[in-house]
Amino acid sequence: MEEELDATVMYAQEGRVSTLTIKELAYKHNGNYTCATTNDVATGSFSAILTVK
């Protein structure tokens, strides 16, 4: 089930750093998060598992 998040995504191109900030993090936010990107040259993705205790 996908849910709309009150979140902010930040990406720094030179440092190649992506940040996902979830406001009011709760147990219900546990799960697999994937960031996918596409441009004229390539596509890419990164997945991470978030565990809230």
From TrEMBL:
Residues 7-52 form the Immunoglobulin I-set domain. It comes from the Eukaryota. SUPFAM superfamilies: Immunoglobulin (SSF48726). The gene is Dscam2_101. This is Down syndrome cell adhesion molecule-like protein Dscam2.
